[in-house]
User: Fold these one by one.
Assistant:
Number 1:
Amino acid sequence: MLLGTKDTWGYMKIAITGAGTVSPIGSNCTEFFEAITSDATGVRSAPWAEPHAVRPPLFAAVDARFDPLRVLDERLLEGCDTFVAFGISACDEALMQAGLRDGSSSGLDPLRTAIVDGTSMGGHYTLMRAQWALETRGPDAVDPKTMMKIWANMTAAQLSMRYGLHGPSLTVSTACASSLDAIGQAAGMIRSGSVDVALCGGTEGGFPSDRPDIDGFVPVTSIAGARLGMESPERDPRLAMLPFDVRRSGIVFGEGAAWLVLESEEHARGRGARPLAWLRGYGSCADGHHPSSPEPTGRWESRAMRLALEDAAVGPTDMDVVVAHATGTPKGDSAEILAINDVLGDAAPLVTSVKGHTAHTGAASGAMSAIAAIAAMRSGQLNHTAGTTEVDPDAGFEVVTSAPRAVDARFAQINAFGFGGQNSSVVLSRGD
């Protein structure tokens, strides 16, 4: 296992002391929690959707209240894809909550702090828009900063510059598992003793839906997703994203960011920080099956879940809550249902997903689910799975539907599974 077993490293808890997010339903953690414990959804018609089309593509845009100029000055924003602004905003919030940033000053050791970002497509909107500009308006219309804006590592790079950090700065790209894998890689650095603090999470998207210079631009990824059959054909936004529902028909693309501050237990205790939660275990493995479809029995997703439990030195009956990947695709949900049945079915945890609220935020989705799990353990209220009313009868567990559920959760497991058979799972426990 990446983080080692008890025989390798010995049992160790890693403190989660800060969290931040930008999502389709809220531009910070407070707004996010209020939205997932109501019936809010960020799913709506895409800015480029034809209003009278038979199958208009749907899109979960970032909350309209998000203003990238709140975190980046205009000159810096001109050199960044919006996905970078998402990551900076979420990481700033996490550091503020952790008590490691106050205004422009930072309490981070520049040599003992790591940054690990997860993204699947980086500045892909910038690249698509640049190609569109070239083809429609010619070479002079291409943004001269295009090359600087498209690289996937730019969120981590900008955070290093923003906070004056010179420790490891890495970017993980494992499709929709990226942010959980970023958390796992960051935790490994802390456990190895190479760093004391790690800023980690995921960033995705960046379509500038409020900008005037997009008239006529349609991102090819939207068309390609529909052509592949992965996008929901539903016209009603409330029915377009139905995790674990028998009526599920595909995903809706979302965007945003979710970031955590991880610290060694010694470092957190030494500065008097009170953890929001503890990162207890991480598991990762590959399906080795198909580029876009999971191995249908879910056995490798089961393995990732079991590795996380083993790494945490806990058993299935310890799990009170599962925040599932649950994308709302027929094949994807079926495989995860079998995996949860296999690993946790007899333990009867409460299972939920945030994707009915947020849509599928890609690389950011795993860390966003982790924030939902932390909120449930701290507040005693677990979000319901928005939109889902007819749970797949194959599920041998209870899916929270209709309304949030009161919980007394000590442990939570979070899953994230991505294209290419990227399987990741983490186990958290309640903070002090």
Number 2:
Amino acid sequence: MKTIATLGSLLLLAATAAAAHGWLGVALFALGAAVTGPAASPVSLRLEHEIELPDVQGRIDHMSLDPRAGRLFVAALGNDTVEVIDVKAARRVQTIRGLAEPQGVLVVPDRNRLFVASGRDGRLRIYDATSLAPLQAVPFGDDADNVRLDPTTGRVWVGYGDGALGAVDANGARVGDVALGAHPESFQMEKKGPRVFVNLPDAKKVAVVDREKGAVVASWRTGTASANFPMALDEADRRLFVVCRTPARLLVLNSDSGAIVAALPTVGDSDDVFYDESAKRLYVSGGAGAIVVYAQDDPDHYREMARVETVTGARTSLFSAETGRLFLAVRRHGQVPAAVWVYEISN
């Protein structure tokens, strides 16, 4: 980044000098080289579909995709439903009703299971992912929220209550709990290690859990930024991405020490962030009405590549590396129905 910045400065000086001597063509060439160099790599989010959910009211929370079956599961929290979308056909095909503020949703194709965490009754409901037949409801007490699959053990973890992570095994039996001291929002698990990183916005910190020990082993402050809700992980480069709402900041933390190595302005009221490992990019969606795309030049240096205008209140999203798509949940506004907007990502 320092090399690029220095080159740009030299080109700008050369362009200024050339313009002063009347060499307009040289000036334009120099400025053009500064603008279109490596730091200006383009990215495109093309709106491919707007899949309407005409009877869905209120807030929409998180989503999960089964890429093989081409089905997207949408937690319509304010509607007490989970909406099932056929992505290829770009239409809703089924609805699970009678839920109690579904917040987290996770489909596990290899086990043909769908897990739905509900805030109002604190239950983790388990369904047959094909037929959507209910199989089991595991009580967690209160405010069951984000759901994640442990890639090493196959257990499913859920954040819940005033501050805990709980786990169920493949049969739906509760097999573990870790006290956190504050309600957990987004959390991310290492694939090659035992740690879980957990956002605790009420405590203004990130907790580090060793899931083998079943205990918190560290906690990191988020500096002057707070309301840390979304999180993503670059395990290979040992970087943790935390998005805060107050003020709106994307924080990059060293996942070994918790040190903040970068901080960038981002969209307000963010509720999701995703790391695209193959493209070395980050996607942040926020209720202030935008999706912001960042390039990772190296583990310590990031830059904004694009800012795509959406609509107010569209906070939650889902990035799918398998399909090269980003799904954005758009809640109902007046007479405009709720929808899922599907973006094709390209360079």
